[in-house]
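Example 225, ligand pyridoxal-5'-phosphate.
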Amino acid sequence: MIDFRSDTVTKPSKAMRDIMYNAPVGDDVYGDDESVNQLEAYACERFEFAEALFCSSGTQANLLALMAHCERGDEYICGQSAHNYKFEGGGAAVLGSIQPQPIENEADGTLCFNKIAAAIKPDDNHFANTRLLSLENTIGGKVLALDYLAATRKFVNQHSLSLHLDGARAFNAAADLNVDITAITQHFDSVSICLSKGLGAPVGSLLLGSKALISKARRWRKVLG
Ligand SMILES: Cc1ncc(COP(=O)(O)O)c(C=O)c1O
C-alpha cells in the first residue's frame, strides 16, 4: 500500500537502514561525526554552496536560517501560507525575536512584487528592519517557475534584501520542471532541504549558505540544543 497522506511518511529502505546501522558516528559539535561531515561536504558539492549544516528537522533548518539572516528586531517577509510562518509554532518570533511580515500568496503560490515592495519598511525607528524575503518551493504542491525565481533574485538585489528558500520539497519541484536542483537553488542566499520528505530518510534536513551565514547558524543550532 502507498500512503498518500504526505511525503513525510516515507520510510527508509533496508539498504538505507543497513547504512545507518553501520555508519561511523561521533560528536558533531567537535566535528567528529564522519557521517555528518561527509553529508555536509557532499551537500556543498551537490548544491554548489560554500557551506552546509545538518539539522534535525526542516523546522530547525528554517529557524536557523531566519536567525542567521536576521537580528533581534528585524523582519522577514513571507507568504501567508508559508510553512515557516504558519506551521512552525511562530518560532522566529518566539525564539529569534524576529517579526514575520506575511503577505497573501497568489493562486500560483508566488508572492506579488508590488505587494512585497509595499510591505518593505522604510528606515525609520517606528519600524522593524526588513532584512529577508523567504519563499517556499514547492508550496502547497505548486511549483514556482524558474523565471519567477530569477525575477525574485533581481527584486531582492534592488531592495537590499537577502533571499531564503524553504526547499523542504525542492527536489519535487526539480523533478516536475525536469531540471537539476541547482537550477532552483542558485537564486538563493540560503536553502533548507528536507531529507525526510520524499527522499526516505527518517529524520534530518540540510541548511545551505555562505560560510559566514552557516557559521552563525551552527552557533544557533548549538544554542537550540
Ligand atoms: C514546506 C515545509 N517546510 C518545512 C517543514 C518542516 O519540516 P520538519 O517536519 O522536518 O520540521 C515542512 C514539513 O512538512 C514543510 O512542508
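Summary: The beta strands are 51-55, 74-79, 99-103, 129-136, 162-167, 190-194, 205-209.
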